[in-house]
Write a structure and sequence with these properties.
The chain is of the alpha+beta class. The protein has a single domain, classed as Cytidine Deaminase, domain 2. Helix content is about 25%, strand content about 35%. It contains three helices and eleven strands. The strands form two sheets. It has a nine-stranded mixed sheet with strand order 9-8-7-6-2-3-1-11-10, sandwiched between helices. It has a two-stranded antiparallel sheet with strand order 4-5. The longest helix has 14 residues. The model has no long low-confidence stretch (mean pLDDT about 90).
Length: about 150
């Protein structure tokens, strides 16, 4: 069973960045961190780049800027930091994956050939899920533990 360790600082960064963005437009980026035996440990995320496209109901991530950020983190970590998944917002909506989200996640996990994490933030809630490359559907993770600095989902 895959667990996800998510620092509260990362959540706060995403929420703060989203509040400063174009009002009502979806925002997103990639999730970076480390793969453990049965867990994904989030370290950081990327934020929207000038090459990305967004609207009130869509966020399309360009590989360009996010790939550069991921490569920098990978080099800085002695090639141990990995792409763990993606995050995006649903401003004014629910923190739940749409049909388009789910289809995209299946493609990404199959492409990566690894379990991938996905986060969705609404104005007041958060969705945490993991998609394995061999499964047809995402598995929602529930909060297992909370410390002063991080949340553990499983």
């Amino acid at each position: 069973m895959t667990k996800l360790l998510l620092p509260k600082a990362v959540i706060e960064d995403i929420r703060a960045h989203s509040e400063r963005s174009v009002r009502g437009h979806e925002r997103g980026g990639i999730i970076l961190g480390f793969r453990k035996a049965d867990a994904l440990q989030v370290e950081s995320v990327t934020f929207p780049q000038i090459w990305d496209q967004s609207s009130p109901t869509m966020f399309r991530r360009s590989e360009r800027g996010h790939r550069i950020s991921a490569l920098r983190e990978w080099m800085r970590s002695d090639q141990t930091c990995d792409w763990l998944g993606e995050w995006h917002t649903h401003p004014g909506g629910l923190a739940a994956p749409s049909f388009i989200d789910k289809a995209s996640w299946v493609r990404l996990a199959r492409h990566a050939k690894k379990s991938m994490a996905f986060l969705i933030f609404s104005d007041s809630d958060m969705y945490v899920g993991v998609q394995s490359g061999w499964l047809r559907s995402v598995r929602r993770l529930n909060l297992l533990e909370e410390s002063r600095d991080a949340l553990l989902f499983g």
